[in-house]
Design brief:
The complex is a heterodimer of chains A (about 325) and B (about 250). With about 325 residues, chain A is of the alpha/beta class. Chain A has 8 helices and 17 strands. Classes of the chains: A alpha/beta (about 325), B alpha/beta (about 250). Chains A and B meet through helix 2, helix 3, strand 7, strand 8 and strand 9 of A and helix 1, helix 3, helix 4, strand 9 and strand 10 of B.
Chain lengths: ~325, ~250
């Protein structure tokens, strides 16, 4: 009986959301008086022994180049084999793109109950009850897992990473890796941008900005904050900004520490994508914009005047000339 | 070629979310039910587009739900699709639901199974992956483009900060999201045709649920917005730095 955290990586480097899952998994192990270990599939440029800092004693690795591409079917079989081999009974994933591809498959393979989108440690005082977001962040459900083996996928940005001293032992496992049926024929990555779902701060623009030519003030503010940029649905639909920046009910759901909404009225469908943000700032010239009701801080004012000032003030705070 | 489109019935996106019976059940009083937008706008419409190019394709819809779901399924049939199956059960355990759908998918030997990327009520993102596992078929999640060439699918899927293009031989399970198709509105001919399309009702296979909802909670209410004067942007920066500790 132990906890196994499945590590996700991009370009050979471990993702921030996986470090959150590691800290979370180590804390679950403490609750259950057991040990936590990490599992890395494929090759990795990061020094895996440093994962010990997040509370795992061991890092299992299946070193096989083919695992550097994601085929959910292959991943599920390998993860299920490792689970049985090392005797794990609680699996932790991050609820990111990889987790959404793989976690449920693994659960079905192992006949394990799964809770996706978990946002807190399980309550183990009476069963194994995991809190998750439902109704697109408008509510929570407390879900009990009845099966012996359990799978949790943790919402990114919902558990704080804690790094201490410590070094993990790396153990290479021999597991048969099936041939992938999914062939990766191309990857298009926007380089130099902070991925939206990993971003701590997001600056988002709506129709109030009047046109794509005015996005400079959004980009400037995002740049000084080290933030990702996003947009509302009408902006994405009008192709002012690329589709992948659209946050909301039918776009991407995010939960950054800080969400700055500029010129977005705050329709309920937009809120569904951002209401898990810890702090929401709304800048809108319409004092009646519904978004102000969901905001922590607000400025009623013209974005074209407010934003350059905000960027300048943040530069001052950060000591950027 | 046979496509199975999984359809879930969810509360309308603007529904007020509340709970009853000691927060153990969703309060559906006054709630309008719709086809889960990801199932409708993206997976069903993409399946219909494929059929428009190749008339030999047949589209079957499947849902797990009670009798009330039928009105919504008829709406889905008004958009397109040849027939529908309702599995007569209610559950929010993803394994239970996936096992029901996989049973239909395996018996019907479907080449392609489409799901939405998640439902807007339970936000599980689990059914597609589970169905694929239970069919022993490949699975591509969060697809933004889907093309068919014979029995080879070319699928673009979302990855962190970009997209990846995959090629795979059918059978295949795909979860669909924005980009794969555009929302459609059913026309009168479709609505009339839907009335006479076959809607099978089958009883569920015996599966033990692996999870159960203990109760629901509402998030703590926001304290209310602190408004800062537009001429005093420095104050906002101070609050974000010192009070919210967000920058």
């Amino acid at each position: 009986m132990s906890v196994l955290i499945i590590i996700d990586k991009a370009d050979g480097q471990i993702k921030k959301s996986s470090l959150e899952a590691l800290t979370y998994g180590a804390d679950v192990a403490k609750q259950l008086n057991t040990t936590a270990a990490a599992l890395v599939l494929g090759t990795c440029t990061d020094d895996l022994s440093t994962l010990g800092k997040y509370g795992v004693g061991k890092v299992y690795q299946v070193v096989e180049d083919s695992l550097n591409n994601l085929d959910a079917q292959v991943y599920a079989q390998v993860i299920a084999s490792v689970t049985n081999q090392v005797g794990a009974n609680v699996l932790i994933f991050s609820h990111n793109q990889t987790g959404k591809s793989v976690a449920a498959r693994v659960a079905a393979n192992l006949k394990a109950g799964i809770v996706t989108g978990a946002c807190a440690l399980p309550d183990v005082s009476n069963g194994f009850v995991v809190k998750k977001t439902v109704f697109s962040g408008k509510a929570f459900a407390n879900v009990n897992i009845n099966s012996a083996c359990k799978v949790i996928s943790l919402n990114p940005n919902s558990y704080k990473t804690v790094a201490t001293e410590g070094s993990a032992i790396i153990e290479t496992l021999n597991v048969s890796v099936p041939t992938a049926k999914v062939k990766v024929t191309g990857i298009n990555k926007v380089s130099g941008e902070v991925p939206l779902t990993e971003a701590e701060i997001v600056v988002s623009g709506g129709r109030g900005l009047k046109g794509p030519e005015n996005w400079g003030i959004i980009l400037d503010l995002a740049h000084v904050l080290g933030a990702a940029t996003a947009c509302s649905r009408p902006v994405g639909d009008a192709h002012w900004r690329p589709h992948h920046e659209h946050v909301g009910q039918t776009g991407i759901q995010i939960a950054p520490n800080l969400y700055i909404a500029v010129g977005i009225s705050g329709a309920i469908q937009h809120l569904a994508g951002v209401n898990r943000s810890k702090v929401i700032v709304v800048i809108n010239k319409d004092a009646e914009a519904p978004f102000f009701k969901a905001a922590d801080y607000g400025i009623v004012g013209d974005a074209f005047e407010v934003l350059p000032k905000l960027t300048a003030e943040i530069k001052k705070l950060k000591g950027i000339a | 070629m046979k496509i199975l489109v999984c359809v879930s019935v969810t509360p309308d996106t603007t529904s007020k979310i509340a709970f009853k019976d000691g927060n153990s059940k969703f309060d559906d009083a006054g709630v309008q039910w719709i086809i889960n937008p990801y199932d409708e706008w993206y997976s069903l419409v993409r399946a219909i587009e494929l059929k428009e190019k190749d008339a030999s394709i047949s589209i079957h819809l499947v849902t797990v739900g009670n009798k009330e779901a039928e009105a919504v399924i008829r709406k889905a049939l008004a958009l397109g699709g040849d027939e529908a199956t309702r599995i007569n059960a209610e559950s929010n355990d993803s394994y239970f639901i996936a096992a029901q759908i996989a049973d239909i998918a395996n018996k019907g030997a479907y080449d392609l199974v489409f799901t939405g990327k998640e439902t807007i009520d339970y936000n599980g993102s689990s059914i597609g992956g589970m169905v694929a596992e239970l069919m022993n078929a490949p699975y591509i999640s969060l697809a933004t483009k889907f093309e068919l060439n014979g029995n080879i699918a070319t699928v673009t899927r979302e990855i962190e900060g970009g997209e990846e293009i995959n090629e795979v031989v059918l059978p295949l399970v795909v979860s669909c999201q924005k980009g794969i198709a555009e929302q459609r509105i059913p026309n009168m001919r479709g609505i009339m045709a839907a009335r006479t399309k076959t809607l099978h009702v089958v009883e569920p296979i015996v599966i033990d649920a692996l999870t159960n909802v203990v109760n629901y909670e509402m998030p703590p209410a926001k304290a209310g917005v602190k408004l800062v004067d537009a001429d005093n942007v420095a104050e906002l920066v101070r609050l974000l730095h010192e009070e919210a500790k967000a920058i």
